[in-house]
Design brief:
Low-confidence stretches: none
Structural class: mainly alpha
InterPro entries: CHP02611, Uncharacterised_PGPGW_TM
Distance between the termini: 94 Å
Strand content: under 5%
Order of helices and strands: HHHHHHH
Biased composition (Basic and acidic residues): 12-25
Shape: elongated
Mean pLDDT: 84
Transmembrane segments: 46-67, 73-95, 116-136
Region (Disordered): 1-25
Helix content: over 70%
Keywords: Membrane, Transmembrane, Transmembrane helix
Largest sheet: none
């Protein structure tokens, strides 16, 4: 290989020649390639862990706060765990455990008869109603008192 003077320097010519001869896989592209570049330095890896940890923790805590209320509480918890799992192995294990538990519950529920399914539905709706009632009570709204006015 002949080294030529160029604006980019001889080191770049040597580096590109070595990369062409290398048996290593090509660098990933897109977000994964960008994340690999960030993780390639200590400061970048630490900063990424801190940012991912904060975002994931906020999502998990926010989701857990939303769980008792109607809405996407568990979905946000699982999304937060998925964010955390990009940088933390323990979060990946918790996420896999949660997915497996949900799958097991769903399979069990599908095998049950209509009587038990209706019972589970009634208990779920009753629990949601109690949670909404006490949530509104903390805001100063008494739904039972309002309903009694109309009766």
């Amino acid at each position: 290989m002949q080294i030529q003077d160029s604006d980019t320097g001889d080191a770049d010519v040597i580096k590109h020649g070595a990369a062409d001869r290398s048996s290593m896989p090509e660098r990933r592209t897109g977000i994964r390639g960008w994340l690999d570049g960030v993780r390639s330095t200590r400061a970048g890896a630490l900063t990424l862990k801190i940012v991912v940890g904060l975002i994931g923790a906020i999502m998990v805590v926010g989701g857990l706060i939303m769980v008792p209320f109607p809405g996407p509480g568990w979905l946000v918890v699982f999304a937060g765990l998925a964010v955390l799992a990009t940088e933390f192995h323990w979060a990946h294990r918790v996420l896999e455990f949660g997915k497996q538990t949900l799958h097991t519950w769903t399979q069990w529920y599908k095998r049950q008869g209509w009587t038990l399914r209706i019972l589970v539905l009634i208990v779920t709706v009753a629990a949601a109603a109690v949670i909404v009632y006490f949530g509104l009570r903390t805001l100063g709204v008494d739904v039972i008192e309002i309903a009694q006015r109309f009766i």
